[in-house]
């Protein structure tokens, strides 16, 4: 928790330091440095055939992203950033950690089968927009890739006797993940999609089938500054 609080302190310090000035004039060179906040509906995809679709799940993230201008007009750039993300999945795969070995199974008798993860995230984007130095309402299309480094993960479920089981930082969890991103919208209203390319779990199987479960997210992203 201390590392997360420190991260947000640094985030807002950097954002204030890089904030755009209202004195910019038309034609001035400018960068669209921003704090971003996103909320997304999330699902696992590419699940093993024995596992059914997950129930309602969501993802939250926030961070700071820095523009690097590629043309004089300032409407094309690349951007890099750092952020924090939280994932919450209500899923169907039973996960246990027994003697430092992750065991997977399908069990319809368990309830409250949840997965939670905290991640540092590092977005890289190619950006196009219709903004100018003093025009703040504009169309945008941002495409890129986002890398994740897992801080912590937890799998938990309740059995038929209402006993609760929790397993933190399991050995088969893939701590480094990445996926493609696409953001499009106007002004504050922007749709954001994340398509995971790396499995959540590594070197894992169930009933002889590899577990290649990946993450798909789609929702809204808001930019500040």
What can you tell me about this protein's structure?
By secondary structure, the protein is mainly β. It has one domain: Porin, CATH 2.40.160. The chain contains 1 helix and 13 strands, in the order αβββββββββββββ. The strands form 3 sheets. An 8-stranded antiparallel beta barrel has the order 1-2-3-6-7-9-10-13. Strands 4-5 form a two-stranded antiparallel sheet. Strands 11-12 form a two-stranded antiparallel ribbon. A hairpin with a 5-residue loop joins strand 7 and strand 8. The two termini are 27 Å apart. Mean pLDDT is 85; it is low at 5-27.
What are its keywords?
225 residues; mainly beta; Porin; two-stranded antiparallel sheet; 1 helix; elongated
Task: Summarize this structure briefly.
The protein has 225 residues and is mainly β. The protein has one helix at 2-17, and strands at 34-45, 58-69, 76-90, 94-98, 101-105, 111-129, 139-158, 164-168, 176-186, 189-196, 205-206, 209-210, 214-224.
